[in-house]
Amino acid sequence: MTSTSAPTISQLFESSNTSIIINITESFIKAEKVEEEHEFDAEAAFILNLTIIACLLLAYTIRRFRIYSLPESAGALLVGVVVGGCARLAVGDNLELFEFSPEVFFFFLLPPIIFEAGYSLDRKGFFENIGAITLYAMLGTIISTFVVGYICFFAAKIGLVKNIDSDNPIEALIFGALISAVDPVATLSIMGNEDLNVDPLLYSLVFGESVLNDAIAISLFKTFFQFYNPEKSNSDTSVIAIIISFVFVSGCSILVGVGLGLGASWLFKHTELKQYPKLETSLVLCFCYLCYATAEAIGLSGIMALFFNGIVLSHYNAYNLSIVAHVATEQVFSTFAT
Description:
Elements: H1 9-64, H2 72-91, H3 102-119, H4 123-128, H5 130-157, H6 170-179, H7 185-191, H8 200-227, H9 239-269, H10 277-297, H11 302-317, H12 323-337
Helix pairs in contact: 1-2, 3-10, 3-11, 3-12, 5-6, 5-8, 6-8, 8-9, 9-10, 9-11, 10-11, 10-12
């Protein structure tokens, strides 16, 4: 039998020192990576804030000098073009600093915008013309989606358009839903000017249609996307099933928004939250995100739910808020929407 000698104290000391040095080195490497990520995030935040400041100052200039030929949305686009062009010239194809997470937009930036649209809605003009608005928004958006989608589909079939599935129309319909979501911000900013004396009925119809159009187009987009399977052919796709699914999702989304709005209004009415305006404002903001998250979590349209949630809270809950919270709520959401 061979006997193995036990390690000496000096050997143990050297091995322990080596492991300590390795751990310290790994800690330094991790710390350097964290510091680099922190600097990267700081640079991204710096550029983002400069871009937002430029957009706000340009919006102020447009309003101050009444530059009707350059709407605020077009001005923001110009700022984006300038920033993007400078970034491309400065860093080339390495544009990681300018990447934007879609989830940040959908779950953080979008809910206050949609909620504010319903919360600040002119309910009298909206509901007086609800028939025409619904006809324009829902039926018009559906017709636009299918017309554009099937034009692209048949163009792909005869070879005029490439990179579009010529066997399954769902891909073309997804594009049709995407392109049917119009943004009338520029039109409304011009029509809403008091100096132009636009017919209130015309403004109400355009505004109401624009508010519902985005929600319906996004709901159509999500519905088509759920049914899209590149391996299936045209015969496997049921347009009737898609329309039924869209109507079901839209109806359930509206019910979720109205239900949560009524629940929040009941809570504010039967409590003494008026004594704490800061808590009131915070709760309204939280209910905004809760409605959107609830609808999205159960597979419905958060946008549609949130829009009608804003309408319900504006109609029923505005009287339950204190004066301070009422003003603060309107200002907070209008600021987010801007």
